[in-house]
Specification:
By secondary structure, this protein is of the alpha/beta class. The chain is built from ten helices and nine strands. Strands 3-2-1-7-8-9 form a six-stranded parallel sheet, with helices on both faces.
Amino acid sequence: MIMIFTGAGLSAESGIKTFRDNDGLWENYDVMQVCSTEGWEADRALVTEFYNARRKDLKDKIPNPAHIFLGELEKKYPNKIYNLTQNVDNLLEKAGCRKVVHLHGTLTDLRCEACEHIWDVGYRPQDEYEICPQCGSASIRHNVVMFGEAAPAYQKIYEAISNCKLLIAIGTSGQVIDIVPISREFSHSILVNPKREEYVSDFGLSDTYIDEYFTYFLQMNAGKAVPEMLEKIEELLSNI
C-alpha cells in the first residue's frame, strides 16, 4: 500500500495562501489570535470571521495537476492508498479523491461543541445565529484543529505507517508534523518539494533539510513533478 502525505505546498499552486508565504495570512492576522484555543476563547467573532473569509476564498479555487494526479492514482490503485493531508481545503475531493483523511479538519464543515456533530456548509459563512442541526445547540465553531487542542485524526498516521510500503510526501516542510521520523519507517520514499533554496525561502525554514531522509527527492513544484512522480512510483512498486 501507498501512504500519501501532503502539505500546504500541494494547494499553493492552486492559489491557496499558506501562513508561511511571503504575502501569507500570518502577515494579516496574528496566528495565535485566529488559530489557537486561547484566541478562540478570547474573541470568537474574530476567529469566525477569519474562517468565513478562508471558506469564501476557497469557493473558486480549482485542483491543480498534482491534485488530479492523486485522484487518478487512487482510481488506479483502489483500496491501496492512504491519502493523508494537512490541508483543510477540499481540492483533493474536487480532483476525485474519495478517501481523504484531513489531519487538521475541514474548512467547509462546522462542528457543534456540545455534541461534536459535524456538518457541511459549503462555502457560506457561519451565521451569527447558527445552531446544530442535530442537538440544537448554539455553541458552533469551525471544524479546523487549532493550536492547543488534540488532533484525533493523527492516529491514522500510525495506521498508514503500519500498513504501507511506500511513502510519498508532497509540499510539506515538516514543520507542523515532523516528517523525518515518518520517513525513517520506510525503505522506499519520495519527497516532492521545490529546490532547497526555494522551499527554505518559501516556508521560512532554517538550513536543516528533510530531503536527505527520502529515497528520491523531486526538486520541483508538485504539478510539474507529476510525470516523474508516476515513473518513480511504478518503479518502486515493482521492487516492493
